[in-house]
Design goal:
Its main location: membrane. Keywords: Antiport, Cell membrane, Ion transport, Membrane, Transmembrane, Transmembrane helix, Transport. This is Multidrug-efflux transporter. It is found in: Cell membrane. The protein has 17 helices and no strands. 82% of the residues lie in helices and 0% in strands. The radius of gyration is 21 Å and the shape is globular.
Length: 444
Protein backbone atom coordinates (compact mmCIF):
# COMPACT_ATOMS: atom_id res chain seq x y z
CA UNK A 1 0.00 0.00 0.00
CA UNK A 2 1.39 3.42 -0.96
CA UNK A 3 0.33 6.99 -1.50
CA UNK A 4 0.53 9.04 -4.65
CA UNK A 5 2.58 12.18 -4.04
CA UNK A 6 0.80 14.86 -6.04
CA UNK A 7 -0.31 18.45 -5.61
CA UNK A 8 -3.90 17.29 -5.14
CA UNK A 9 -3.07 14.56 -2.61
CA UNK A 10 -0.83 16.80 -0.52
CA UNK A 11 -3.23 19.72 -0.47
CA UNK A 12 -6.23 17.49 0.26
CA UNK A 13 -4.51 16.85 3.59
CA UNK A 14 -2.60 20.12 4.05
CA UNK A 15 -5.41 22.64 3.52
CA UNK A 16 -7.81 21.17 6.12
CA UNK A 17 -4.82 20.65 8.44
CA UNK A 18 -3.86 24.30 8.02
CA UNK A 19 -7.38 25.45 8.86
CA UNK A 20 -7.44 23.14 11.87
CA UNK A 21 -3.99 24.28 12.98
CA UNK A 22 -4.68 28.00 12.90
CA UNK A 23 -7.76 27.53 15.09
CA UNK A 24 -5.48 27.08 18.12
CA UNK A 25 -3.66 30.42 17.78
CA UNK A 26 -6.94 32.08 16.76
CA UNK A 27 -8.23 31.30 20.27
CA UNK A 28 -5.31 33.23 21.75
CA UNK A 29 -5.32 35.94 19.07
CA UNK A 30 -9.03 36.61 19.62
CA UNK A 31 -8.51 36.96 23.36
CA UNK A 32 -5.50 39.23 22.74
CA UNK A 33 -7.26 41.50 20.23
CA UNK A 34 -10.49 41.87 22.20
CA UNK A 35 -8.89 42.14 25.63
CA UNK A 36 -6.30 44.64 24.36
CA UNK A 37 -9.13 47.00 23.44
CA UNK A 38 -10.95 46.91 26.80
CA UNK A 39 -11.53 50.59 27.70
CA UNK A 40 -10.29 50.24 31.28
CA UNK A 41 -7.05 48.38 32.19
CA UNK A 42 -6.56 47.29 28.57
CA UNK A 43 -2.75 47.31 28.80
CA UNK A 44 -2.68 45.22 32.00
CA UNK A 45 -5.27 42.80 30.58
CA UNK A 46 -3.23 42.42 27.38
CA UNK A 47 -0.08 41.67 29.38
CA UNK A 48 -1.95 39.09 31.51
CA UNK A 49 -3.29 37.29 28.43
CA UNK A 50 0.24 37.14 27.01
CA UNK A 51 1.78 35.71 30.18
CA UNK A 52 -1.01 33.19 30.83
CA UNK A 53 -1.17 32.26 27.15
CA UNK A 54 2.54 31.44 27.12
CA UNK A 55 2.24 29.25 30.22
CA UNK A 56 -0.87 27.41 28.99
CA UNK A 57 0.71 26.87 25.57
CA UNK A 58 3.67 25.33 27.35
CA UNK A 59 1.44 22.86 29.22
CA UNK A 60 -0.62 21.98 26.13
CA UNK A 61 2.40 21.53 23.87
CA UNK A 62 4.28 19.44 26.42
CA UNK A 63 1.41 17.02 27.02
CA UNK A 64 -0.16 17.28 23.57
CA UNK A 65 2.69 15.32 21.98
CA UNK A 66 0.68 12.09 22.19
CA UNK A 67 -1.23 13.40 19.16
CA UNK A 68 1.88 13.18 16.97
CA UNK A 69 2.90 9.78 18.37
CA UNK A 70 -0.57 8.27 17.79
CA UNK A 71 -0.70 9.72 14.28
CA UNK A 72 2.77 8.38 13.39
CA UNK A 73 2.09 4.84 14.60
CA UNK A 74 -1.36 4.57 13.01
CA UNK A 75 -0.15 5.94 9.66
CA UNK A 76 2.83 3.55 9.62
CA UNK A 77 0.57 0.56 10.29
CA UNK A 78 -1.83 1.82 7.62
CA UNK A 79 1.03 1.99 5.10
CA UNK A 80 2.08 -1.56 5.99
CA UNK A 81 -1.53 -2.79 5.62
CA UNK A 82 -1.77 -3.84 9.28
CA UNK A 83 -4.18 -1.26 10.71
CA UNK A 84 -6.26 -3.91 12.53
CA UNK A 85 -3.25 -4.67 14.73
CA UNK A 86 -3.46 -1.31 16.54
CA UNK A 87 -7.21 -1.14 17.19
CA UNK A 88 -6.87 -1.05 21.01
CA UNK A 89 -3.92 1.39 21.15
CA UNK A 90 -5.77 4.76 20.82
CA UNK A 91 -8.04 4.20 23.85
CA UNK A 92 -5.10 3.25 26.08
CA UNK A 93 -3.05 6.23 24.90
CA UNK A 94 -5.87 8.76 25.36
CA UNK A 95 -6.75 7.44 28.83
CA UNK A 96 -3.12 7.78 29.92
CA UNK A 97 -2.87 11.30 28.50
CA UNK A 98 -6.10 12.61 30.04
CA UNK A 99 -5.24 11.21 33.50
CA UNK A 100 -1.83 12.87 33.34
CA UNK A 101 -3.38 16.18 32.29
CA UNK A 102 -5.82 16.12 35.21
CA UNK A 103 -2.94 15.45 37.62
CA UNK A 104 -1.00 18.44 36.27
CA UNK A 105 -4.10 20.65 36.35
CA UNK A 106 -4.66 19.86 40.03
CA UNK A 107 -0.97 20.37 40.68
CA UNK A 108 -0.90 23.91 39.27
CA UNK A 109 -4.28 25.32 40.28
CA UNK A 110 -3.22 25.67 43.95
CA UNK A 111 0.05 27.51 43.21
CA UNK A 112 -1.18 29.96 40.57
CA UNK A 113 0.28 33.06 42.22
CA UNK A 114 3.73 31.50 42.63
CA UNK A 115 3.78 30.44 38.95
CA UNK A 116 3.13 33.94 37.64
CA UNK A 117 5.46 35.59 40.14
CA UNK A 118 8.20 33.47 38.55
CA UNK A 119 7.21 34.98 35.19
CA UNK A 120 7.75 38.51 36.58
CA UNK A 121 4.05 39.37 36.84
CA UNK A 122 3.23 41.82 39.61
CA UNK A 123 0.59 44.25 40.81
CA UNK A 124 -2.57 44.42 38.73
CA UNK A 125 -1.04 42.24 35.99
CA UNK A 126 -0.48 39.46 38.54
CA UNK A 127 -4.05 39.85 39.80
CA UNK A 128 -5.40 39.57 36.25
CA UNK A 129 -3.16 36.56 35.48
CA UNK A 130 -4.58 34.67 38.46
CA UNK A 131 -8.24 35.36 37.62
CA UNK A 132 -7.77 34.56 33.91
CA UNK A 133 -5.77 31.36 34.48
CA UNK A 134 -8.08 30.06 37.22
CA UNK A 135 -10.88 29.80 34.65
CA UNK A 136 -8.95 28.84 31.50
CA UNK A 137 -6.97 26.02 33.10
CA UNK A 138 -10.07 23.80 33.32
CA UNK A 139 -10.10 23.61 29.55
CA UNK A 140 -6.66 21.98 29.59
CA UNK A 141 -7.79 18.29 29.70
CA UNK A 142 -10.54 19.05 27.18
CA UNK A 143 -8.02 20.44 24.69
CA UNK A 144 -5.68 17.46 25.13
CA UNK A 145 -8.54 15.03 24.54
CA UNK A 146 -9.54 16.86 21.34
CA UNK A 147 -5.89 16.90 20.20
CA UNK A 148 -5.55 13.14 20.72
CA UNK A 149 -8.69 12.46 18.67
CA UNK A 150 -7.35 14.73 15.92
CA UNK A 151 -4.16 12.62 15.96
CA UNK A 152 -6.21 9.47 15.37
CA UNK A 153 -7.98 11.04 12.39
CA UNK A 154 -4.64 12.24 10.99
CA UNK A 155 -3.18 8.75 11.24
CA UNK A 156 -6.18 7.54 9.22
CA UNK A 157 -5.25 10.13 6.53
CA UNK A 158 -8.26 12.29 7.38
CA UNK A 159 -7.81 15.99 8.16
CA UNK A 160 -11.37 16.99 7.30
CA UNK A 161 -12.97 16.19 10.67
CA UNK A 162 -10.17 17.82 12.70
CA UNK A 163 -10.76 20.91 10.56
CA UNK A 164 -14.49 20.90 11.35
CA UNK A 165 -13.79 20.52 15.08
CA UNK A 166 -11.34 23.40 15.00
CA UNK A 167 -13.57 25.71 12.94
CA UNK A 168 -16.46 25.13 15.32
CA UNK A 169 -14.33 25.89 18.40
CA UNK A 170 -12.67 28.98 16.93
CA UNK A 171 -15.93 30.46 15.60
CA UNK A 172 -17.73 29.92 18.88
CA UNK A 173 -14.83 31.47 20.78
CA UNK A 174 -14.94 34.65 18.68
CA UNK A 175 -18.69 35.09 19.16
CA UNK A 176 -18.52 34.41 22.92
CA UNK A 177 -15.54 36.76 23.31
CA UNK A 178 -17.53 39.73 22.01
CA UNK A 179 -20.59 38.82 24.08
CA UNK A 180 -18.86 38.06 27.39
CA UNK A 181 -16.00 40.59 27.32
CA UNK A 182 -17.94 43.65 26.13
CA UNK A 183 -21.45 42.49 27.13
CA UNK A 184 -24.79 43.17 25.47
CA UNK A 185 -26.65 46.16 26.80
CA UNK A 186 -29.67 45.07 28.82
CA UNK A 187 -28.85 41.37 28.45
CA UNK A 188 -25.27 40.52 29.46
CA UNK A 189 -23.04 42.55 31.76
CA UNK A 190 -19.43 43.08 30.54
CA UNK A 191 -17.09 40.52 32.17
CA UNK A 192 -13.88 42.00 30.70
CA UNK A 193 -10.87 39.66 31.06
CA UNK A 194 -12.82 36.91 32.83
CA UNK A 195 -15.30 36.91 29.94
CA UNK A 196 -12.46 36.00 27.55
CA UNK A 197 -11.47 33.13 29.83
CA UNK A 198 -15.03 31.76 29.94
CA UNK A 199 -15.34 32.08 26.16
CA UNK A 200 -12.22 29.93 25.68
CA UNK A 201 -13.33 27.35 28.25
CA UNK A 202 -16.79 26.91 26.72
CA UNK A 203 -15.28 26.60 23.22
CA UNK A 204 -12.83 23.95 24.40
CA UNK A 205 -15.68 21.99 25.96
CA UNK A 206 -17.67 22.04 22.71
CA UNK A 207 -14.61 20.88 20.76
CA UNK A 208 -14.08 17.95 23.15
CA UNK A 209 -17.72 16.82 22.89
CA UNK A 210 -17.63 17.14 19.10
CA UNK A 211 -14.38 15.11 18.95
CA UNK A 212 -15.92 12.32 20.98
CA UNK A 213 -19.06 12.24 18.83
CA UNK A 214 -17.18 12.17 15.51
CA UNK A 215 -14.79 9.46 16.68
CA UNK A 216 -17.74 7.30 17.71
CA UNK A 217 -19.73 7.92 14.51
CA UNK A 218 -17.02 8.15 11.83
CA UNK A 219 -14.61 5.39 12.95
CA UNK A 220 -14.70 1.92 14.45
CA UNK A 221 -12.24 2.92 17.16
CA UNK A 222 -13.40 2.39 20.74
CA UNK A 223 -12.39 4.75 23.53
CA UNK A 224 -12.92 2.11 26.22
CA UNK A 225 -9.44 0.97 27.38
CA UNK A 226 -9.07 -2.80 27.23
CA UNK A 227 -6.41 -5.18 28.49
CA UNK A 228 -3.89 -6.49 27.68
CA UNK A 229 -1.65 -3.46 27.26
CA UNK A 230 -0.90 -3.05 23.57
CA UNK A 231 2.73 -3.86 22.64
CA UNK A 232 3.05 -0.52 20.80
CA UNK A 233 2.08 1.46 23.90
CA UNK A 234 5.68 1.29 25.08
CA UNK A 235 6.94 2.74 21.78
CA UNK A 236 4.21 5.39 21.89
CA UNK A 237 5.20 6.37 25.44
CA UNK A 238 8.86 6.48 24.38
CA UNK A 239 8.04 8.70 21.40
CA UNK A 240 5.85 10.89 23.61
CA UNK A 241 8.59 11.20 26.25
CA UNK A 242 11.10 12.31 23.63
CA UNK A 243 8.58 14.85 22.38
CA UNK A 244 7.84 15.77 26.00
CA UNK A 245 11.51 16.68 26.58
CA UNK A 246 11.55 18.46 23.22
CA UNK A 247 8.45 20.46 24.16
CA UNK A 248 10.03 21.41 27.50
CA UNK A 249 13.03 22.79 25.61
CA UNK A 250 10.72 24.57 23.17
CA UNK A 251 8.75 26.17 25.96
CA UNK A 252 11.87 27.18 27.86
CA UNK A 253 12.50 29.39 24.83
CA UNK A 254 8.98 30.83 24.76
CA UNK A 255 8.75 31.34 28.53
CA UNK A 256 12.21 32.94 28.76
CA UNK A 257 11.22 35.28 25.94
CA UNK A 258 8.05 36.27 27.84
CA UNK A 259 9.97 36.63 31.10
CA UNK A 260 12.62 38.89 29.57
CA UNK A 261 9.98 40.98 27.75
CA UNK A 262 8.00 41.35 31.00
CA UNK A 263 11.14 42.51 32.80
CA UNK A 264 11.57 45.29 30.20
CA UNK A 265 8.20 46.85 31.13
CA UNK A 266 4.47 46.80 30.39
CA UNK A 267 4.69 48.20 26.85
CA UNK A 268 7.33 45.62 25.94
CA UNK A 269 5.35 42.59 27.13
CA UNK A 270 2.29 44.07 25.39
CA UNK A 271 4.23 44.40 22.11
CA UNK A 272 5.79 40.95 22.53
CA UNK A 273 2.34 39.44 23.15
CA UNK A 274 1.10 40.82 19.82
CA UNK A 275 4.24 39.69 17.97
CA UNK A 276 4.28 36.16 19.42
CA UNK A 277 0.59 35.65 18.64
CA UNK A 278 1.18 36.64 15.00
CA UNK A 279 4.30 34.44 14.94
CA UNK A 280 2.28 31.46 16.23
CA UNK A 281 -0.53 32.17 13.77
CA UNK A 282 1.94 32.07 10.87
CA UNK A 283 3.58 28.97 12.34
CA UNK A 284 0.35 27.00 12.46
CA UNK A 285 -0.62 28.32 9.03
CA UNK A 286 2.62 27.00 7.50
CA UNK A 287 2.44 23.84 9.62
CA UNK A 288 -0.40 22.51 7.43
CA UNK A 289 2.28 21.21 5.06
CA UNK A 290 4.17 19.82 8.03
CA UNK A 291 0.96 17.95 8.93
CA UNK A 292 0.71 16.58 5.37
CA UNK A 293 4.33 15.42 5.70
CA UNK A 294 3.50 13.85 9.06
CA UNK A 295 0.50 11.96 7.69
CA UNK A 296 1.90 10.89 4.30
CA UNK A 297 5.48 10.42 5.49
CA UNK A 298 4.51 7.79 8.07
CA UNK A 299 2.48 5.89 5.51
CA UNK A 300 5.26 5.99 2.88
CA UNK A 301 7.81 4.86 5.47
CA UNK A 302 5.53 1.96 6.46
CA UNK A 303 5.35 0.98 2.77
CA UNK A 304 9.16 1.48 2.38
CA UNK A 305 8.49 3.79 -0.57
CA UNK A 306 11.60 5.96 -0.20
CA UNK A 307 11.45 7.53 -3.68
CA UNK A 308 8.02 9.00 -3.04
CA UNK A 309 9.11 10.01 0.46
CA UNK A 310 11.91 12.07 -1.09
CA UNK A 311 9.46 13.63 -3.58
CA UNK A 312 7.07 14.39 -0.72
CA UNK A 313 9.76 16.29 1.20
CA UNK A 314 10.64 18.44 -1.84
CA UNK A 315 7.03 19.25 -2.68
CA UNK A 316 5.82 20.12 0.81
CA UNK A 317 8.84 22.40 1.23
CA UNK A 318 8.08 24.18 -2.06
CA UNK A 319 4.41 24.62 -1.12
CA UNK A 320 5.29 25.76 2.41
CA UNK A 321 7.74 28.38 1.13
CA UNK A 322 5.08 29.64 -1.28
CA UNK A 323 2.65 30.12 1.62
CA UNK A 324 5.30 31.90 3.70
CA UNK A 325 5.97 34.23 0.76
CA UNK A 326 2.30 35.19 0.63
CA UNK A 327 2.28 35.74 4.41
CA UNK A 328 5.34 38.01 4.12
CA UNK A 329 3.61 40.19 1.52
CA UNK A 330 0.46 40.39 3.68
CA UNK A 331 2.58 41.25 6.74
CA UNK A 332 4.31 44.19 5.06
CA UNK A 333 1.14 45.48 3.35
CA UNK A 334 -0.85 45.34 6.61
CA UNK A 335 2.07 46.29 8.85
CA UNK A 336 0.21 48.96 10.83
CA UNK A 337 -3.40 47.69 10.63
CA UNK A 338 -2.35 44.37 12.19
CA UNK A 339 -1.06 46.17 15.27
CA UNK A 340 -4.27 48.19 15.59
CA UNK A 341 -6.26 44.95 15.75
CA UNK A 342 -4.66 44.14 19.09
CA UNK A 343 -4.22 47.37 20.97
CA UNK A 344 -5.10 51.06 21.04
CA UNK A 345 -2.14 51.92 23.31
CA UNK A 346 0.29 54.17 21.42
CA UNK A 347 3.41 53.06 23.32
CA UNK A 348 2.62 49.36 22.82
CA UNK A 349 2.04 49.89 19.08
CA UNK A 350 5.24 51.86 18.56
CA UNK A 351 7.23 49.15 20.32
CA UNK A 352 5.52 46.41 18.29
CA UNK A 353 6.13 48.18 14.96
CA UNK A 354 9.81 48.52 15.81
CA UNK A 355 10.34 44.70 15.84
CA UNK A 356 7.57 43.30 13.61
CA UNK A 357 9.85 43.32 10.53
CA UNK A 358 12.00 40.63 12.21
CA UNK A 359 8.95 38.38 12.59
CA UNK A 360 8.10 38.81 8.89
CA UNK A 361 11.62 38.34 7.47
CA UNK A 362 12.11 35.13 9.48
CA UNK A 363 9.06 33.39 7.93
CA UNK A 364 11.01 31.38 5.29
CA UNK A 365 13.44 30.18 7.98
CA UNK A 366 10.50 29.11 10.13
CA UNK A 367 8.94 27.28 7.17
CA UNK A 368 11.93 24.96 6.77
CA UNK A 369 11.83 24.07 10.47
CA UNK A 370 8.05 23.59 10.71
CA UNK A 371 7.66 21.51 7.54
CA UNK A 372 10.51 19.13 8.34
CA UNK A 373 9.43 19.00 11.96
CA UNK A 374 6.06 17.58 10.88
CA UNK A 375 7.67 15.16 8.44
CA UNK A 376 10.08 13.84 11.09
CA UNK A 377 7.19 13.24 13.52
CA UNK A 378 5.49 11.07 10.90
CA UNK A 379 8.73 9.14 10.42
CA UNK A 380 8.94 8.46 14.16
CA UNK A 381 12.25 10.36 14.51
CA UNK A 382 11.30 11.72 17.93
CA UNK A 383 14.74 11.20 19.51
CA UNK A 384 16.43 13.31 16.85
CA UNK A 385 13.76 16.01 17.15
CA UNK A 386 14.42 16.07 20.89
CA UNK A 387 18.17 16.49 20.42
CA UNK A 388 17.72 19.24 17.83
CA UNK A 389 15.49 21.27 20.16
CA UNK A 390 17.86 20.84 23.09
CA UNK A 391 20.76 22.02 20.95
CA UNK A 392 18.84 24.93 19.43
CA UNK A 393 17.60 26.08 22.85
CA UNK A 394 20.70 25.73 25.01
CA UNK A 395 23.42 26.40 22.41
CA UNK A 396 21.46 28.81 20.22
CA UNK A 397 18.59 30.71 21.79
CA UNK A 398 19.81 31.17 25.36
CA UNK A 399 23.33 32.39 24.45
CA UNK A 400 21.88 34.70 21.78
CA UNK A 401 19.29 36.02 24.27
CA UNK A 402 21.86 36.95 26.89
CA UNK A 403 24.28 38.37 24.33
CA UNK A 404 21.43 40.63 23.24
CA UNK A 405 20.76 41.50 26.86
CA UNK A 406 24.44 42.32 27.42
CA UNK A 407 24.38 44.74 24.48
CA UNK A 408 21.04 46.19 25.72
CA UNK A 409 19.17 45.28 22.53
CA UNK A 410 15.88 44.95 24.44
CA UNK A 411 13.03 43.43 22.43
CA UNK A 412 15.25 43.31 19.32
CA UNK A 413 17.59 40.94 21.15
CA UNK A 414 14.72 38.62 22.11
CA UNK A 415 13.50 38.30 18.52
CA UNK A 416 17.00 37.92 17.07
CA UNK A 417 17.50 35.03 19.53
CA UNK A 418 14.23 33.41 18.41
CA UNK A 419 15.40 33.65 14.77
CA UNK A 420 18.75 32.02 15.62
CA UNK A 421 16.81 29.25 17.38
CA UNK A 422 14.73 28.57 14.24
CA UNK A 423 17.78 28.57 11.94
CA UNK A 424 19.43 25.81 13.96
CA UNK A 425 16.22 23.75 14.03
CA UNK A 426 15.62 23.92 10.28
CA UNK A 427 19.24 23.36 9.27
CA UNK A 428 19.68 20.27 11.44
CA UNK A 429 16.50 18.61 10.11
CA UNK A 430 17.38 19.17 6.44
CA UNK A 431 20.88 17.77 7.05
CA UNK A 432 19.54 14.62 8.75
CA UNK A 433 16.87 13.92 6.14
CA UNK A 434 19.31 14.18 3.22
CA UNK A 435 21.90 12.05 4.97
CA UNK A 436 19.46 9.27 5.93
CA UNK A 437 17.15 8.94 2.92
CA UNK A 438 19.20 9.99 -0.10
CA UNK A 439 21.23 6.72 -0.06
CA UNK A 440 17.95 4.73 0.01
CA UNK A 441 16.66 6.17 -3.27
CA UNK A 442 16.30 3.70 -6.12
CA UNK A 443 16.99 4.68 -9.71
CA UNK A 444 13.87 4.36 -11.83
Amino acid sequence: MTTRVSFKTINRLAIPATIAGIAEPILSITDTAIVGNIPENGLESLAAVGIVGAFLSMLIWILGQTRSAISAIISQYLGAGKLDQVSTLPAQAIALNVLLSIAILLGTVFIVEEIFLLLNAKGKILEFCISYYSIRVWGFPLTLFAFAVMGIFRGLQNTYWPMMIAITGASLNIVLDFILVYGIEGLVDPMNLEGAAWASLISQGVMAVMSLYLLMVKTHISLIPRLPVHPELGRLIGMSLNLFVRAVALNITLVLAVREATALGDRFIGAHTIAINLWLFAAFFIDGYGAAGNIMGGRLLGAKDYNNLWKLAKKIMLYGLSVSGVLMVIGFVLYRPLGLLFSNEGEVLRTFYSIFFIVILALPINTVAFVFDGLFKGLGEMKYLRNVLLTATFLGFIPALYIGQYFELGLYGIWIAITVWMMIRGGALVFKFRRKFRPLLQKV
